[in-house]
Specification:
Helix content: 10-25%
Largest sheet: 4 strands, antiparallel
Strand content: 15-25%
Shape: globular
Number of strands: 9
Strand order of the largest sheet: 2-1-3-4
Oligomer: single chain
Radius of gyration: 21 Å
């Protein structure tokens, strides 16, 4: 009788704990064949710049640059985000956005030229800054007030297939096809070609 009562209590306690924990979220692998950035519609590479978030209703969105994920949050808010992830710059391990440490410098090359790199801990970020001689270390909270300006000089990253830009209105420009910042007026007819 005592064993049955103990077993029932353990099962009940286990059920209560599972319910209290709520839904669990996990980062999903990047598939370069099909994954495109939810903001700029460019290929998401399986690299250290890839980020992703999963909404509370289970939808997963992937981004080729943390700046694109920030843009998604600006457009959609953060209340429905179950979990958001970035990758460690050194080993590509997925890290919860809020737990990562960030390094920003306009000269750092990232797919969308936002210049923000992600690290699993502050020591790794400090080591990177010491080695490179540039960069400001930031927390996830500090990124909330970051200005997220793109460095247009870094938009055409040769050989990585990522040189592209988007304006605040969501317009996409493919910088690999020779369109420079000054050509935007002239190249309006080329907007969004092959990107939506």
């Amino acid at each position: 009788m005592n064993k049955r009562w103990m077993l029932a209590m353990v099962l009940l306690l286990g059920t209560v704990m599972l319910t209290a924990c709520g839904q669990k979220y996990a980062a999903v692998p990047i598939n370069e064949e099909v994954d495109i950035c939810a903001i700029c519609n460019m290929q998401v590479k399986d690299d250290a710049f890839a980020t992703q978030l999963t909404t509370k209703d289970g939808k997963n969105y992937k981004f080729d640059d943390i700046g694109c994920m920030n843009e998604w949050k600006k457009q959609n808010g953060t209340d429905n985000i179950g979990m958001d992830y970035v990758r460690d710059y050194n080993d590509k391990e997925w890290i919860e956005f809020s737990k990562a440490t960030y390094v920003y410098d306009a000269s750092l090359k990232t797919p969308m030229a936002y210049g923000v790199l992600n690290f699993k801990d502050k020591a790794s970020a400090e080591a990177f800054v010491a080695e490179q001689g540039v960069g400001t270390i930031m927390t996830a909270d500090e990124l909330a007030s970051h200005d997220w300006t793109q460095n247009m000089d870094n938009m055409n990253m040769e050989g990585d297939g990522h040189g592209h830009s988007h304006d605040g209105d969501g317009t996409n420009y493919d910088m690999d096809h020779g369109m420079s910042e000054g050509d935007h007026q002239e190249g309006q007819s080329k907007e969004n070609s092959g990107h939506h």
